[in-house]
Design a protein that fits this description.
89 residues; mainly alpha; 2 domains; 0% strand
């Protein structure tokens, strides 16, 4: 017997995983089309961000975008040998 609930859930999750990454690009395109077209003035910009604010933004980006972690999990294991243990510094 075919479990339709499983397949509908699976297809729904697959669709969300394919659509969600592109939604931020669509949002940025919408915002750029609705903007008044003002230019950025970088010379007079004061940067008031603290180290911890910038650090937490980086952590949030890494948590929400797991591509880097997936890359390291796929790339680094080929260089690890079980019998050698840890690398001394």
């Amino acid at each position: 017997m075919i479990d339709y609930d499983f397949w509908f859930t699976f297809i729904g999750i697959a669709i969300l995983l394919n659509i969600a990454p592109g939604s931020d690009v669509l949002y940025l395109a919408y915002k750029s089309l609705k903007s008044s077209g003002t230019k950025f003035n970088i010379e007079n910009k004061q940067i008031n961000d603290t180290f911890w604010k910038v650090f937490m933004q980086g952590v949030l980006i890494d948590v929400l975008n797991p591509k880097v972690a997936i890359f390291f999990m796929a790339f680094l294991p080929q260089f690890i040998r079980e019998g050698y243990g840890s690398i001394p510094f």
